[in-house]
Amino acid sequence: MYDLTGRTILVTGASGGIGGTTVRHLAKTGADVIASGRSQEALDELAAETGARTLTFDLTSEDSVRAALGDLDLWGVVNCGGFGGEIATPQETDISVFDQVISINARGALLVTKYAARTMERLGQGGSIVNVSSQAGLVALHGHVSYGSSKAALDNITRVSALELGKLGVRVNSVNPTVVMTPMSAWYWGRPDVEGPFLEAMPLGRWATEDEIAAPIVFLLSDAASMISGVSLPIDGGYSCR
């Protein structure tokens, strides 16, 4: 078990599966967790279970992010807030959906990083940021022109942030998970014509679990990863090594 006692860590997207599971894992490390997300009801349930504090703000609004984070004393951040968008080819894509996916997945994470980093610089205690990206940012997946582009952008935000914030003692990394099979994702990934070929191409041949994503996130936040920065870590059963 990693020890993050006394470190305040913000988790965006905490009302979702990976974000909520990450909050649960962090609560066990002794961290002071702030859970942020779109569903206040889900956040309240998570807070009752874990003791996390809750915070709501709009990832697409710089004013909202600035107001929410300006006075927080943060040591760590998990940028897990995201939007899947659509399954479409470049010829079919709805540009308004593309813009929304980029706005939340890349621009929103950058806004959180911008204001969290200012806090970390003010406190002078270093810190750690973990961005939840995707294997779609590393390899081409059918129908993922919007989502994959947003996550590739997030991976570059990760690398540049690691370069710029290293002098502050702030590490920045991303995790790049494969699909976690949930009722929300099953409509596409559960289709036999999609699931079969995809899993056949993956060396481990199975979907990831939320715990298998949350555990590496906690590792990257912890002092056990104190010399790791600027990394995009695939959590994809070996899919991207093909």
Short description:
The chain has about 240 residues and is an alpha/beta fold. The protein has helices spanning about 15-30, 40-50, 60-70, 95-125, 145-165, 185-190, 190-200, 210-220, and strands at about 10, 30-35, 55, 75-80, 125-130, 170-175, 230-235.
List the helices and strands and how they pair.
Blueprint lengths: L7 E4 L5 H12 L3 E5 L3 H11 L2 E3 L6 H8 L6 E4 L15 H29 L3 E6 L12 H21 L4 E8 L5 H7 L2 H9 L9 H12 L10 E4 L7
Parallel strand pairs: 1-2, 1-4, 2-3, 4-5, 5-6, 6-7
Report on the structure:
It contains eight helices and seven strands, in the order E-H-E-H-E-H-E-H-E-H-E-H-H-H-E. It is of the alpha/beta class and 242 residues long. It has one domain (8-227): Rossmann fold, CATH 3.40.50. The chain has a seven-stranded parallel β-sheet with strand order 3-2-1-4-5-6-7, sandwiched between helices. The longest helix is centred in the middle third of the chain and has 29 residues, at 95-123. The model has no long low-confidence stretch (mean pLDDT 97).
| CATH homology-level superfamily | NAD(P)-binding Rossmann-like Domain
Distance between the termini: 32 Å
Mean pLDDT rating: 97
Ranges with pLDDT <50 over ≥5 residues?
Answer: none
CATH hierarchy: architecture:
3-Layer(aba) Sandwich
